[in-house]
């Protein structure tokens, strides 16, 4: 009797690459690749890119992989990266919020948009926003929103976002 072991295989990408817009990909400089975050991106510089945006902290590869698995299991996180020469040079995140409002609609939250400082001026940030909005629309969101610092408003206006409402925040002490 032959014994067959079935193992569950998980995709190596956070979400299906089919959500990547060919138009946005084709608008990138030659050699640049727009794609979903991969489970093995820890060594490709994703945390270094995010550190140019805010505090990252000391994250081990195991912690990175555990967080990747959690985001993948939740199914509402869409972290995209732009890669050049096997290094991540830009990234952004779309988080889907499931609502009761708007007929049980969905809102796309744009988060953590960052382009490596050596790559700025190549319109990579605009391409990230175009891709995020493409995904939000494809996933059935009725709007996408983001919070940003006042000095970033002109950039986001160039990306066809408009100023709406005011953000309020309450930060919690971390013990």
Automatic annotation (TrEMBL):
InterPro entries tied to this protein: Acyl_CoA_acyltransferase (IPR016181), GNAT_dom (IPR000182), GNPNAT1-like (IPR039143)
Pathway where it operates: Nucleotide-sugar biosynthesis; UDP-N-acetyl-alpha-D-glucosamine biosynthesis; N-acetyl-alpha-D-glucosamine 1-phosphate from alpha-D-glucosamine 6-phosphate (route I): step 1/2
Cellular localisation: Endomembrane system; Endoplasmic reticulum membrane
Catalysis: reaction(s): D-glucosamine 6-phosphate + acetyl-CoA = N-acetyl-D-glucosamine 6-phosphate + CoA + H(+)
Keywords tagged on the record: Acyltransferase, Endoplasmic reticulum, Membrane, Transferase
Domain annotation N-acetyltransferase: ranges: 32-175
GO molecular function per UniProt: glucosamine 6-phosphate N-acetyltransferase activity
Chief location bin: membrane
GO terms for cellular component: endoplasmic reticulum membrane
Enzyme Commission no: 2.3.1.4
Enzyme class: transferase
Biological processes annotated in GO: UDP-N-acetylglucosamine biosynthetic process
Membrane topology designation: Peripheral membrane protein
Similarity comment: Belongs to the acetyltransferase family. GNA1 subfamily.
Subunit structure: Homodimer.
Official protein name in the record: Glucosamine 6-phosphate N-acetyltransferase
Native source organism of the sequence: Phycomyces blakesleeanus (strain ATCC 8743b / DSM 1359 / FGSC 10004 / NBRC 33097 / NRRL 1555)
């Amino acid at each position: 009797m032959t014994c067959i072991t079935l193992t569950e295989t998980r995709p190596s990408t956070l979400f299906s690459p089919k959500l990547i817009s060919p138009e946005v990909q084709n608008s990138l400089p030659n050699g640049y690749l727009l794609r979903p975050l991969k489970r093995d991106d820890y060594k490709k510089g994703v945390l270094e890119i995010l550190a140019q945006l805010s505090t990252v902290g000391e994250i081990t590869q195991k912690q990175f992989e555990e967080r990747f698995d959690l985001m993948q299991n939740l199914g509402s996180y869409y972290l995209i990266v732009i890669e050049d020469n096997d290094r991540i040079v830009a990234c952004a995140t779309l988080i889907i919020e499931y609502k009761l409002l708007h007929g049980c609609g969905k809102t796309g939250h744009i988060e953590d948009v960052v382009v490596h400082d050596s790559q700025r001026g190549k319109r990579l940030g605009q391409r990230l926003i175009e891709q995020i909005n493409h995904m939000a629309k494809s996933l059935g969101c009725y709007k996408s929103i983001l919070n940003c610092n006042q000095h970033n408003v002109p950039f986001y206006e160039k990306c066809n976002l408009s100023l709406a409402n005011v953000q309020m925040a309450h930060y919690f002490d971390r013990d």
